[in-house]
């Protein structure tokens, strides 16, 4: 019985079928503004949740910053103000966009200078104990 070749070929086809697929939960287009050592800057990204479950973000970490927080922009009395967001919920099959003028990451007390063209890491912490990592480009 010589089925080994066809079985191996079929297994390879199934294994390769999964290559190139995007994870259900991912960070896209992460970037931060340039900053001098000791300064404060903002970070932006899109969090994609193509899973059937809600995601609850409870924090952010950035190795290049002494402190990192999630912020949201709120409108009060005709003014826009920023405030820390201790948790953000991302519904199933939606995106949360951290962008100028909206939700964003505040990276304070920069431990190093981040110049245009550099990269830095960002980690989002989830309520279930999981984390999501991204490499952010530094750009104006």
Walkthrough of the structure:
The chain is built from 1 helix and 10 strands; from the N terminus they run αββββββββββ. Strands 1, 2, 3, 4, 5, 6, 7, 8, 9 and 10 form a 10-stranded mixed β-sheet that branches. The protein has a single domain, classed as Immunoglobulin-like, CATH 2.60.40.1890. The longest helix has 14 residues. The N and C termini lie far apart (65 Å). Strand 9 and strand 10 form a beta hairpin. Helix content is 10%, strand content 52%. The protein is mainly β and 140 residues long.
Kindly summarize this structure in a few lines.
The protein is 10% helix and 52% strand. The chain is mainly beta and 140 residues long. The protein has one domain: Immunoglobulin-like (Sandwich), CATH 2.60.40.1890.
Protein topology:
Elements: H1 4-17, E1 25-32, E2 41-49, E3 55-61, E4 65-76, E5 79-84, E6 88-90, E7 94-98, E8 104-110, E9 119-126, E10 131-138
Parallel strand pairs: 1-10
Antiparallel strand pairs: 1-2, 2-7, 2-8, 3-6, 3-9, 4-5, 4-8, 9-10
Q: Keywords, please?
A:
140 residues; mainly beta; Immunoglobulin-like; ten-stranded mixed β-sheet; 1 helix; 52% strand
Order of helices and strands: HEEEEEEEEEE
What percent of the residues sit in helical stretches (DSSP H or I)?
10-25%
Structural class: mainly beta
Number of helices: 1
- Percent strand: over 45%
- Rg calculated over all Cα atoms: 20 Å
- The CATH superfamily is identified as PCu(A)C copper chaperone
The number of E-state strands comes to 10
Largest sheet: 10 strands, mixed
